[in-house]
Design brief:
The complex is a heterodimer of chains A (652) and B (212).
Chain A: H1 2-15, H2 22-31, H3 45-51, H4 109-112, E1 117-128, E2 137-142, E3 151-154, E4 159-165, E5 177-178, E6 180-183, E7 199-200, E8 204-209, H5 216-219, E9 231-236, H6 242-248, E10 251-257, E11 282-292, E12 304-305, E13 313-316, E14 319-320, E15 323-327, E16 330-337, E17 344-351, E18 357-360, E19 362-367, E20 370-378, H7 382-385, E21 400-402, E22 407-413, E23 422-427, E24 453-460, E25 488-497, E26 500-504, E27 521-524, E28 527-534, E29 543-547, E30 552-559, E31 562-563, E32 575-576, E33 578-581, E34 585-593, E35 598-604, H8 607-611, E36 615-621, H9 624-633, H10 636-651
Parallel strand pairs in A: 1-4, 3-10, 11-16, 15-24, 25-28, 27-36
Antiparallel strand pairs in A: 1-2, 4-8, 5-7, 6-9, 9-10, 11-12, 11-13, 13-14, 16-22, 17-18, 17-21, 17-23, 19-20, 19-22, 23-24, 25-26, 28-34, 29-33, 29-35, 30-31, 30-32, 30-34, 35-36
Chain B: H1 3-6, H2 20-23, E1 27-29, E2 35-37, H3 38-43, E3 47-53, H4 61-74, E4 83-89, H5 97-106, E5 114-119, H6 121-132, H7 137-140, E6 149-154, E7 159-164, H8 169-178, H9 185-206
Parallel strand pairs in B: 3-4, 4-5
Antiparallel strand pairs in B: 1-2, 1-5, 3-6, 6-7
Classes of the chains: A mainly beta (652), B alpha/beta (212).
C-alpha cells in the first residue's frame, strides 16, 4: 500500500545515510525550483508526486490581494483524469484491512462491476499558480491539482473512483478530513459522500458511480435514457468544513457522455453534434473567488487566504483573468460555480459600432446537468428578457445568474464576429469588481471596466486543421420524461431561528439543525413526491438549495407564498438539482425516489450555510417495514428539541 | 479554582494558530472575580467550547446552559483538564462576576473547567465578532443571533468548529469530539471498525439491504 511505503520513508532515508537518498535528491530538486519536474524514467507519476515535500504556507493578514496584469495566462481545461487499475481491487464490502474507510456495502454491485473505469483521486497538498505575476500558491487538490483532473465518462460504463485522503495537518484553517460527493450522481448512498461519513489520512474510500440513467427499477437495463445528465462535479462534503475544503481546492468536474452528446463532433447515430471536443471546443468554466497574500519572494509563494469574505480575485479554471483564443465557430462552455458563497451574474460583452460595450447573446443548452428541451438565447434586450433566469415575475433583462453549485452549459457562436474581435466575460454582481491594478492591454469597449472582466476571448479565423464548425444548434435537444403522479406532499422551510440556520418540516415547532444520525423524512422507494422549498421567512438570505440523488422538475415558483406568473422562469423550468431561493421565494418541485436505498441530503449549497447546519438527511426505504423503522426515528431530533424547550420553561 | 489551574496547559498551540491576533488577549473576569487573559489563559493549547449569554436572558440562554450542563456530564473526566467551557456575557455592563456567580450557582453550573466571563464591553464585542462573525450585518449586529451557537476550538490543532445548542445531544457531543486531538493511525483503525459496526447496524435496523 503506497501509504505504508510513505510511512516507511524515514527508514529508507536512515538506511541510505551517508549516501544521497532518492528523497534527498528530490528535496534538492525542489529547492532548485524543479518541484514536479522529474525525469519520467526515475519515478512513476504517483510516486514522484508522493515524494514531493510541499512546505506549508505561512500566515498573512493582507486586506487586499496583490495586483495582476490582465489577460496574460491561457484559459485551459483541466487535464482529464487517467484511469488505471486499483490495487487492492475494489470490493463490495469495505476493505477495512487494506485501509478503506467504513461504509455500507455497495448497492447493485453485481450489476455495475467490474467497473469499466477505475480512478484514484488522492486529496493532497499541491502548488498551483493562479497567475503568472504570482508565485505558486499552496492548495489542497485531488492528485495535488486545482482544478482537479476531469473524469470523462460514458453512460453504460460504470466507474469506481478511489478517493484517498493524504491531507496533512497543516497551517490552513481547513480540516484534513474528507467525504467526497458527486453532484448530482444517481448512485447508492454509500457512494454519495454523505456529510457525516468523513474519513482521515491515510484511509481511502471507493465510490461506485454506475453512470446509469435513473429508472433502473422500472426500465431495467441502464435505466431511462430520458434521464440523461451531463455536467457533474465532485467536491468535499465534510460536515462543518465543506467551505474551507473547497476554498483550498478540493473540487473538480465529472462529465458523462452518451449517444446524444458523445464527446465528439462527427455525425453519429443520435448525436446532436454540439461542440464537443473536451478542451478544444468544449470547456469547463469553473468559477470561484479568492483573496491572496502579498507575494513573498523569499518563501517563493503567493499564498491564498482561506476566507469567503473580502475576496477580490476571480478565478476561472484556476486562473485570474485568462484569455482564450477562439476560432470563428461555436464553442460550448460548462459553467460551474464552486462557490463557496458568491452568486455570479455573467454577461458576454462586445463592442457595438460606436465602440460601446454591448451585451452579446449566449445560448443556454443545459441547466445543471440537463439539456433544456429547447435552447434559450439570453442577452439584455427586451426580446430575450423573458428568457433570462431572473428570479420572479416580472422577469427583467439581466445576465446569467449562477449560484453556488449550479451549472449552465452555454454555446457561444464566435462565427458572427470578425477575426480580431475581442469579447469579454463580465461579472455584474459586485459593485467594486475585482482587484486588478493594471490597465487592460487591449482597449476595452467603452463602459466596460477591467475590474468587471472575468476573462477575454480573442476571435481568430479557423485554421484548416482546426475542427470545422458544428451544424446549427438543434431546436429540440431532448424530450423530458413525463412527470409522474404525486404520492406525497412535503415542505422544507429554510429558516433562521435564534441565530441558527435550520430546515423546518411540516408540523415542526422550531426545526432541527443537521443531524447525520437520524432521518428527518422517510420516502418509500419508487414513489414521487412534491416538495415545497420555502424561503418565505423574511430573512434577507439567498439559499441555493441542492437535493442529492435525482434531478427534479420545478412546477411552480412563489414569492411570499403567492404563486408567480409566469409560474416558472424558463431557465428554471428544466430538470435541475439546485433551486435558487431568493429572500421570500419558494419552489414547488417534483422528484422521484427510486433504484437505491439509504441516506441522502437536502441542503443549502451556500457552503457557509451548509456548514452551519442548513442541511437535512432524508432516507429512501425499500419496503413498508423499512419505511416504518425509518418513520419511528424521524421525530428523534424534533422530540429532543421539544424536550429541551420544556426544560427551558422549567428553568426559566 | 486558582490562576495556576487556569494556566494548566496540556498541549502547545498548533504552529499555525492565529493566537492572540485573532482571539485577543483581553483581560476578562471569571465568576470568581479572577483576571484571565482570553488567549493566553483560556484558549492557548486547549480544546474549548465558547458561547455567549447574559444572566437576565430568558430566551435561549437557559436552554443553552442546560445543554452545556448535559454536555458537561458526558465530558466530566476531561473538564478542566483538556476541555473547557466558556460562557461569556453579552451584557458586561449588567453582568458582574458576582451576578454571573449567582447565575451559575442557581443552575448548578459553577463547575470546574466552566467559566462564566465578563469584562470590558468593547473587548467582549471584539471577541464575539472574532468568534462568530458571519460577514453579514443582518446577522452579526443582532445580539440574539449568536446566543444559540457553540464555538468549538482546539488551539493545539488550530481546529475551528461549531455546534448549536439546538442540535441533538449526540450531535453536539460528536462535534466537540471532532475537535479532539488527532487520533493515531492505530486508533483510527480501531475507531473505523466501530464506525463500520454502527453502519451495519443502521443498515439492518432500517432494512436498507444491499441487494436490489
Amino acid at each position: 500500500m503506497p501509504k505504508n511505503e510513505a510511512n516507511n520513508r524515514p527508514e529508507i532515508d536512515n538506511k541510505t545515510e551517508g549516501t544521497i537518498s532518492r528523497r534527498s535528491v528530490l528535496k534538492i530538486g525542489a529547492a532548485a525550483g524543479a518541484a514536479g519536474v522529474l525525469a519520467p524514467s526515475m519515478l512513476t507519476h504517483t510516486e514522484a508526486l508522493g515524494f514531493q515535500t510541499i512546505p506549508e504556507p505561512g500566515v498573512c493578514a493582507s486586506a487586499v490581494s496583490p495586483n495582476h496584469h490582465p489577460f496574460v495566462d491561457e484559459f485551459t481545461a483541466p487535464f482529464p483524469a487517467d484511469d488505471h487499475p486499483l490495487n487492492p481491487q475494489p470490493t463490495e464490502f469495505p476493505n477495512l484491512g487494506a485501509g478503506e474507510a467504513p461504509r455500507a456495502a455497495h448497492q447493485r454491485w453485481s450489476q455495475f462491476t467490474p467497473a469499466h473505469f477505475t480512478y484514484e483521486l488522492e486529496a493532497r497538498p499541491g502548488l498551483h499558480t493562479f497567475h503568472s505575476d504570482f508565485l505558486p500558491t499552496y492548495i489542497w487538490g485531488f492528485n495535488g491539482q486545482y482544478p482537479a483532473p476531469t473524469c470523462l465518462q460514458k453512460y453504460g460504463k460504470p466507474t469506481i473512483v478511489r478517493f484517498r485522503n493524504s491531507l496533512p495537518d497543516d497551517s490552513t484553517p481547513a480540516v484534513p478530513e474528507i467525504t467526497v460527493h458527486l453532484h448530482n450522481g444517481h448512485h447508492g448512498s454509500e457512494s454519495d459522500g454523505f456529510a457525516g461519513d468523513w474519513f482521515t489520512n491515510p484511509f481511502w474510500k471507493d465510490n461506485l458511480y454506475p453512470n446509469c440513467y435513473a429508472g433502473l427499477d422500472v426500465f431495467g437495463g441502464n435505466g431511462d435514457p430520458k434521464e440523461k445528465m451531463g455536467t457533474f462535479w465532485f467536491h468535499d462534503h465534510r460536515a462543518e468544513h465543506t467551505q474551507t475544503s473547497n476554498i483550498m481546492g478540493l473540487n473538480g468536474m465529472f462529465i458523462v457522455y452518451d449517444e446524444t452528446d458523445p464527446g465528439h463532433e462527427n455525425p453519429s447515430a443520435g448525436s446532436l453534434q454540439l461542440p464537443g471536443y473536451y478542451g478544444v471546443t468544449d470547456f469547463p468554466m469553473i468559477l470561484t473567488d479568492k483573496r491572496f497574500c502579498a507575494t513573498d519572494p523569499v518563501a517563493g509563494r503567493t499564498e491564498m487566504i482561506v476566507t469567503a469574505g473580502g475576496t477580490d480575485k476571480w478565478i476561472i479554471n484556476g486562473k485570474i483573468q485568462p484569455k482564450l483564443t477562439v476560432r470563428k465557430r461555436k464553442y460550448r462552455f460548462r459553467i460551474l460555480n464552486t462557490g463557496t458563497t458568491k452568486t455570479w451574474n455573467l454577461t458576454l460583452i462586445g463592442a457595438d459600432a460606436n465602440g460601446n460595450a454591448k451585451v452579446q447573446p449566449i445560448t443556454v443548452i443545459a441547466t445543471d446537468a440537463n439539456f433544456l428541451e429547447h435552447p434559450i438565447v439570453i442577452d439584455d434586450t427586451p426580446a430575450n428578457a423573458g428568457n433570462s433566469n431572473a428570479d420572479t415575475a416580472p422577469i427583467t433583462p439581466g445576465g446569467l445568474r449562477v449560484s453556488v453549485a449550479e451549472r449552465y452549459d452555454i454555446i457561444i457562436d464566435f462565427n458572427q464576429y470578425a477575426a480580431g474581435t475581442k469579447l469579454y466575460l463580465k461579472e455584474n454582481g459586485v459593485a467594486a469588481g475585482q482587484k486588478v491594478g493594471f490597465p487592460s492591454p487591449d482597449p476595452l469597449p467603452t463602459g466596460l471596466r477591467i475590474e468587471d472582466v472575468v476573462m477575454q476571448f480573442n476571435v481568430v479565423a479557423r485554421e484548416p486543421w482546426f475542427p470545422k464548425d458544428t451544424p446549427p444548434i438543434p431546436a429540440t435537444l431532448c424530450t423530458y420524461p413525463t412527470l409522474p403522479p404525486v404520492n406525497n406532499n412535503w415542505e422544507w422551510q429554510f429558516v433562521l431561528v435564534s441565530g441558527v440556520f435550520r430546515v423546518k418540516r411540516p408540523g415542526d415547532a422550531v426545526g432541527c439543525v443537521f443531524d447525520p444520525d437520524h432521518p428527518a423524512h422517510c420516502i418509500l422507494r419508487g414513489t414521487t413526491e412534491e416538495w415545497l422549498l420555502n424561503n418565505n421567512i423574511a430573512s434577507g438570505w439567498t439559499h441555493p438549495v441542492h437535493i442529492h440523488f435525482e434531478e427534479f422538475r420545478t412546477v411552480g415558483r412563489f414569492t411570499n407564498g403567492v404563486p408567480q406568473i409566469p409560474f416558472v422562469p424558463p431557465l428554471m423550468s428544466g430538470r435541475k438539482d439546485v433551486s435558487r431561493l431568493e429572500p421570500g421565494q419558494g419552489t414547488l418541485l417534483r422528484m422521484q425516489f427510486r433504484d437505491y436505498n439509504g441516506r441522502y441530503l437536502i441542503h443549502c449549497h451556500n457552503m457557509a450555510h451548509e456548514d452551519n447546519f442548513m442541511m437535512v438527511r432524508w432516507d429512501i426505504c425499500p419496503d413498508t417495514n423499512s419505511l416504518n423503522a425509518c418513520i419511528a426515528d424521524q421525530q428523534i431530533c424534533e422530540n429532543e428539541l421539544k424536550a429541551k424547550w420544556r426544560l427551558d420553561e422549567e428553568v426559566a | 479554582m486558582d490562576r495556576r489551574e487556569l494556566l494548566t496547559r496540556v498541549y502547545e498551540p498548533h504552529r499555525s494558530s492565529p493566537g492572540a491576533a485573532r482571539y485577543t488577549n483581553a483581560v476578562l473576569r471569571t465568576q470568581d472575580n479572577k483576571e484571565v487573559r482570553f488567549y493566553d489563559d483560556l484558549i492557548r493549547g486547549k480544546q474549548v467550547v465558547v458561547n455567549f449569554m447574559y444572566a437576565e436572558c430568558h430566551g435561549s440562554c437557559p436552554l443553552v446552559t442546560q445543554t452545556l450542563k448535559q454536555t458537561y456530564r458526558e465530558f466530566k473526566d476531561r473538564m478542566g483538564k483538556d476541555l473547557f467551557f466558556y460562557s461569556i456575557t453579552t451584557k458586561p455592563e449588567e453582568d458582574t462576576p458576582a451576578s454571573l456567580k449567582h447565575y451559575a450557582e442557581m443552575r448548578n453550573a459553577d463547575l470546574p473547567g466552566w467559566y462564566f466571563l465578563t469584562g470590558d464591553p468593547f473587548d467582549i464585542k471584539t471577541i464575539r465578532f472574532r468568534l462568530f462573525n458571519m460577514d453579514h450585518p443582518g446577522f452579526d449586529v443582532d445580539l440574539n443571533m449568536h446566543t444559540g451557537w457553540l464555538r468549538i476550538l482546539n488551539d493545539a490543532r488550530n481546529y475551528w468548529g461549531m455546534a448549536q445548542a439546538f442540535a441533538t445531544q449526540k450531535n453536539i457531543l460528536n462535534r466537540i469530539r471532532w475537535a479532539d486531538m488527532p487520533k493515531s493511525h492505530a486508533e483510527w483503525v480501531v475507531e473505523n471498525r466501530k464506525i463500520q459496526i454502527a453502519i451495519e447496524q443502521d443498515v439492518k435496523k432500517y432494512g436498507y439491504r444491499r441487494d436490489i
